[in-house]
Design brief:
This protein has 8 helices and 6 strands. The chain is an alpha/beta fold and 207 residues long. 43% of the residues are buried.
Length: 207
């Protein structure tokens, strides 16, 4: 069994670090989107029969940049279009913050996610973070999600303020596995819970 894991905006692949030990020795490929340094080394390719797991923007990236290169897709607090559900002013404010004070902006973002102090300010790649905000503002993968032929699992948190329950329900409908808490960082706060659901989903896929 092989998993490809893609982190969200403002993080690196270390957000999955506590999840690894619970994947029962499965092979794992990490994708590093370059927003924050200091995380595990990322790769650029993976087997087509992998199960893809995207956290937040990582799910949108999988739909936009790797459509169909997986036999199953897991969304952990992910979405197919961020700008369809969030006011443009919110992303514009983040862009101004990244330009003026990236360290303070990410510190506040991590705190709102439930991951205060995730990395040091010097680890931030402001240019790449700004590019990631452009993805959030412009990428719309709703048609790609609707065209999926592989099974999909959606995990979400009831206390997520970045991707609130109403947004998750609008995207994924009633087929969501809910955690009562975990903020916007379920892989950090509840890694064993995430891994258990990911493994159950993967084992149920057709061979």
């Amino acid at each position: 069994m092989h998993f490809v894991l893609v982190h969200g905006w403002g993080f690196h692949a270390g957000i999955f670090a506590d999840l690894f030990p619970h994947l029962q020795g499965a092979e794992v490929t990490l994708i590093d989107l370059g927003f924050v340094g200091g995380g595990p080394k990322g790769a650029s390719d993976w087997p087509d029969d992998a199960v893809a797991v995207g956290h937040s923007l990582g799910l949108l990236w999988l739909l936009e940049q790797a459509f169909g290169r997986y036999k199953g897709l897991v969304s952990i607090q992910g979405f197919d279009c961020f700008s369809c559900h969030v006011a443009p002013s919110r992303l514009a404010a983040l862009k101004r913050g990244i330009e003026r004070e990236p360290g303070g902006t990410l510190k506040a973002f991590w705190r709102s996610c439930g991951a205060a102090g995730f990395a040091l300010p010097e680890a931030l790649n402001a240019k790449r973070l700004d590019e990631g905000l452009d993805w959030l503002m412009t990428w719309d993968a709703r048609k790609a999600r609707e065209a999926l032929t592989c099974p999909v699992l959606a995990l979400a948190s009831r206390d997520d303020v970045i991707v609130p329950p109403s947004m998750s329900e609008a995207i994924w409908g009633e087929e969501i596995v809910w955690s009562p808490d975990g903020g916007h960082v379920l892989p950090l706060r509840h890694p064993e819970w995430c891994a258990r659901h990911v493994l159950e989903f993967a084992h149920a896929l057709p061979s």
